[in-house]
Amino acid sequence: SEKDNSAGEKELLEIYLNKTAKLIKAPIVIASIISGGKYIKELSEFGENLGLLFQIVDDILDYTSTKEELGKSVNKDLNANKLTYVNLLGIDKANEYADEVFNKAINALKNVEDSQILIDFATSIKQAQPLLSSIDFALTKSFCKSSLPAAKLAI
Asked: Would the pTM count as exceeding 0.70?
């Protein structure tokens, strides 16, 4: 369970990969399939890492932000003794892990044409801009202008 602090990093990774990562990866992969399957492996890897990054950043923001900044209660995970990367690794190591996952996501796109918009989206999440702003970014016309069919279809 997520509240079991003895679970460790392997269990937490499994939880996050089966939670947020799959949720974010799915529309990216489906869009790739619909647009002919080009870059499906790369976009699948990008989506999985983007979902994991999103969850790690959410853990960090829960620990470092104010209620006013997030628009929701903070320290909820810490107070509930919920297993998170901040609780497991500490804030500095959680930030380092977020950097590592971000780099994996970006590296997955190195051979994908017209992927700058996806890189920008990942960057907005990594920079811990409010997560709702990152989602709003994904829904703006600038995101839809990307010539990468999968990016357009994922909206």
From this structure: yes
